[in-house]
């Protein structure tokens, strides 16, 4: 296998996501785990017989949330990168499981920009690029809102110029 | 094709015999549901005493109820008949339906990809068919299909020809031939019992009588009766005989299911560039796929069929049955389980290729992929063994031999499956097609048109990174939306992807001296 090819690898896409994405991811993880932990803790305060179990599981959930919030966002920030060339969109995401996605411009069907409430707080936006494949969507998370708007506009302009129904 | 003036195309109605069908169906339902209930209520036993003992009022009540149901069904159907109309103009196919709320649905004719005709037994008696007209859209809620239920068989055929007959694509006659590509060979029935249907039906054959006897409160009697049959024989012998009988019944049943699905099967290429599958014993089906939407084929070998040397062919096409995914597997099959060599031949005919890409030699994957599969399989097999061992330590005798037996059977079987899974892995290029193979319980060899690839996904877990493996997915608009090349050598897979679709991946590749192979995790 691979004899005479040297090490061929995918080069990382050119652009990092915005630094504020770290804070956004951290807040999302903390909120996601805080809700069930609080619920379990509340139940533990009221339900006498199962108090120990409920409080212990609340503690476990909270601990998992804290660890994830401490480790994952920084890791994601190092991995998550994106790039848009004249021909294709290139995206790298993930941490333990890393994923590179490449979609050619000529096959892009829709370009959406989404700003969730938390993202608004951090002045971030997510650009979703879909192709005709049910498994081919690219989500570029953690972009500065202005960068995202410019990117979406650019992608829409390029895809309008390419003919065909993208299947 | 000279277009007639569009708006003059008359509106048509669905067939008025729909009312008769509905009346019969509802009446039958009434008899089926009402008769047992009445028998139960009156306490009569028509099987031993005849109908004489059933009181007259019960018979009157039953027939009145059945008549009422039949009339009600016909009345609802009459309303539907008056409110449903359709027409096919030069630009659009339109359907208006709705009892209270008028629903107008209209499809652009150039978008129509499939026209399927289905005739369940009741409709067949009347010479009627259901028509399903579909486009290639990925839609929610099936907005992109028109269903005409029912129209006469001739009208269904007319619609099918009208909607799918298109001028031949430019570029002159293509290679390959029109006409019949495959037809049923009754010897294929021998592959039917090898499918997963057999054990399912066997369980049904064993459990069905138990359940039914419980409804009549006779379960105990049934068990006693079966026990009497095996008086004197050991429990092991009884279980073996019953299991063998159930499996035999399952095998017979699976052949029956196969016959219902595949009787009179024919795969035909029609002049307009469409593939047509016709099949069915009681319910006849006609499925049509526009060749322009075909992106490749999937040669599927479930484990049982593969041991028997058989394979089936599924179409990989855009816009097939996206609205009801549960039935899509059934609807995309171009060839039922047939001898492997024949399956390859039919695949080549379908793809208009000289030799089938599914039979092309493939690149094997690195040994590290075998290691991963062995670890998964033994891990999965070790779980029940560990649980049983724990029980054996706690409770002793009955669990000790069980744990030993499960370990003795499960671990080698897992290792064997893992080895088979590894040997199934492969990928390669064959002419215009990208070929990838994987799976052991359901080995699938997908040949995908290189022009149909609309993107790449490369995935790598921490473990794969250490072993220099990647999972490469070619995304496509057709079929499953993406097809995986699992656990291939990293450098080899990326070169393969770059070669399969020139120009897409190259700008993002770097070639380095082979010092450190895994890509940088971050930085």
Automatic annotation (TrEMBL), chain A:
Pfam families reported in the protein's UniProt record: bPH_2
InterPro entries noted in UniProt: YdbS-like_PH
Keyword Membrane appears in the UniProt entry: yes
Keyword Membrane attached: yes
YdbS-like PH domain residues: 77-154
Keywords, ordered alphabetically: Membrane, Transmembrane, Transmembrane helix
Domain of life: Bacteria
Transmembrane segments: 21-46, 52-77
PANTHER family given in the database record: TRANSMEMBRANE PROTEIN-RELATED, UPF0699 TRANSMEMBRANE PROTEIN YDBS
Protein name: YdbS-like PH domain-containing protein
UniProt organism field: Streptomyces solincola
Automatic annotation (TrEMBL), chain B:
Pfam families: bPH_2
Keyword Disulfide bond set for record: no
Transmembrane segments: 21-44, 56-79, 191-210, 235-259, 374-392, 398-418
Assigned keywords, A-Z: Membrane, Transmembrane, Transmembrane helix
Domain (YdbS-like PH): residue spans on this chain: 81-155, 428-494
InterPro entries: UCP026631, YdbS-like_PH
PANTHER family assigned: UPF0699 TRANSMEMBRANE PROTEIN YDBS, UPF0699 TRANSMEMBRANE PROTEIN YDBT
Protein name per the record: YdbS-like PH domain-containing protein
Source organism (scientific name): Streptomyces solincola
